[in-house]
């Protein structure tokens, strides 16, 4: 049976080697060959072709999907020049697995990991408005007016409008719901009022939560959860 012919960057992402965006970069850098010919953006192929990326032949692989309760002092990357613990050090997986998005070094909580490059790219893309829920503990409480401001349409983070729901759960702790995930987004929300985030835990990502897992523990996603995620980003 023949494999479907698709855009090359999509085929590479399906192999789990890198994300679709990274695949496009590698193609532009002329680091991808199809049947011995250097590829370009627009090239189409299938898994019946010999596709070499950075000297590595790719193959269609079994897709894997995990949810982890990320601990502190862990990098959401596949390597770290400072030789700190990376998130995949906590996993017993031979297949290359990568995190969907990132949590800061000391931020804990829900993170998904996979070798499905297409799903990873879509769940990370702003246009799909994937919900994230955090619990933050601050060095001081917000005033009533400050809390009202954070729930208004006047907030700007990283030069873009930021829409979120912020609820106080105790004197210095807050639940934050948002559908965007720019660099240090939650911390910058509270920096507006010179508040320092002492601890940050992501309770939920894309409707899935780490509740029931100890820090550093992970589990496979169920078939139902995988289908749910794919429906969220129009893959099925």
UniProtKB/TrEMBL annotation:
Domain of life: Bacteria
SMART domains reported for this sequence: S4
Keyword annotations from UniProtKB, A to Z: Isomerase, Lyase, RNA-binding
InterPro entries linked: PsdUridine_s_RsuA/RluB/E/F_cat (IPR042092), PsdUridine_synth_cat_dom_sf (IPR020103), PsdUridine_synth_RsuA/RluA (IPR006145), RsuA_PseudoU_synthase (IPR050343), S4_RNA-bd (IPR002942), S4_RNA-bd_sf (IPR036986), TruA/RsuA/RluB/E/F_N (IPR020094)
GO molecular function, one term: RNA binding
A Pfam family: PseudoU_synth_2
SUPFAM superfamilies: Alpha-L RNA-binding motif (SSF55174), Pseudouridine synthase (SSF55120)
Gene label: rluB
Domain RNA-binding S4: 6-62
EC number: 4.2.1.70, 5.4.99.22
A biological-process GO annotation: enzyme-directed rRNA pseudouridine synthesis
Lineage of producing organism: Bacteria, Bacillati, Mycoplasmatota, Mycoplasmoidales, Metamycoplasmataceae
Organism from which the protein derives: Mesomycoplasma neurolyticum
Gene3D superfamilies in the cross-refs: Alpha-L RNA-binding motif, Pseudouridine synthase I, catalytic domain, N-terminal subdomain, RNA-binding S4 domain
Protein name: Ribosomal large subunit pseudouridine synthase B
